[in-house]
From TrEMBL:
PANTHER family: ACETYLCHOLINESTERASE, CARBOXYLIC ESTER HYDROLASE. SUPFAM superfamilies: alpha/beta-Hydrolases. It comes from the Eukaryota. Residues 1-20 form the signal peptide. This is Carboxylic ester hydrolase.
Amino acid sequence: MYSKRVAMLLFMSLIHVALSLPNTVPRARQPIVTLRNGTLLGLQSPTYEQGYFLGVPYAPPPVGELRLRRVTPPTAWNETRLATSYGPWCYGNNIGLLGYSQTVPGVEYSEDCLQLNIIRPQGQEEMPSCLCFLNYRLGAFGMLAGSAIEQDGLANIALYDQRQALAWIQENIRQFGGDPQRVTIMGESAGAFSVGFHLLAYGGRDDGLFSSAIAQSGGPYTEGAVNRNSTKREADFNAVLEATGCQGTNDPLNCLRQVPATKLNAASVGLPVSMVIDGQLIANSSQAQLERGQFIRVPLLIGANRNECTSFTRLIAPFPINSDEDFSNIIHNTWAGGVIPSDPMQAWSGLYDNEVNDPSIAGLGTVAPNPGTAYGAQYGKTSLWLTDVQFMAGRRFAAEAWAAKGVPSYSYFFDTVPASVNATELGAAHFQEIPYVFGNEDGVGWDGDPFPADRNLRNKHKRLARTMSRMWISFAVNKSPNFHQGR
């Protein structure tokens, strides 16, 4: 009945985007699916013409002795399982996403969070999509590194969670009306880098887990998401041991498995994402693999926002940024990981001066080079450089790698400033395309309405949202975003 449905699995940016869906779903006849592991009873919404299966486990709860271990397939259940309410959020830390504070009332956090939320259209349509939102382990629970972790083969746990979810979808999505041969993986920010890791997994080995990929603000060039500094990884690991009282114990991993989850979570505040080259899922550097064509050759939709790093500059840079010396210090200390010779630094500085100050280039869009004394004269230039290094360069590099092998890739550039964001300080910042991609015209879940109050402007933003959401669906269905003009 639903044989033409494509499935989209979404790795979002350390948040539970599914909560932008209605918290209460009007009930009609409740849908039932029977899987290999048991039967699920979901919800049907006549208002949205959708069926919901919420809190569906794709693995056993990673608690107790299963904490800090690789995921395994789920166990079976005998009774019909209610899939009618969202499960808990995985433990993690607020990363201060602009417009989305993550302060959702009544949200429960738990280690028992390895679940999917599955939304499918009601009835039979020509080519509808089935959406699957994924929870995976974060912070110290899924991204901890250090010699003890790495020697036991327990690095990159978060990615193995995602891999298991993909395997679960291959086994079960047909029961929800999805086509396992037409799975699109999609992610934003950390989720986009997760997409990138899976495109490069096991040296580019194609296990048939997905047939296309969407990467928003991130992607297959994952150098910035891999921690190559073993000394720093060990220092971070020791800091977690110290904070949890596990430093000096005979078996630190066993100790970490016994501390309260809230204590372990608190110990990971400020902990950097520490994906490491493990010789398995992350087999090599992304740059080397892309240059050699060692990636899964499926169509790719990839893009970034004009002012990706205005928000990150505010988070990581000492303000004000007034001089070329301030600019170079941020580059050295924050991203470069070492000393850059003076000649390229001077060349960069001059190029970005032109990018910021030449009206014909308008590299910053609506963002002022210096929004005020608290920011400094080099704020705009610094944010632009960081945007290029962390997002734009990798997007181009990946698109070129795809083109070199004759694999379709499509690139977008998001340049719209939501109404809820300060245009001169932040502009089209990181994460701000999300309400447009998901067609969230009512701003559900956002701190402020992203669409302008002025009716004419609001209609323009709504048209953009409808176009973007249709293009994303077009890509999932047709492997091209350019079939979005039909009904």
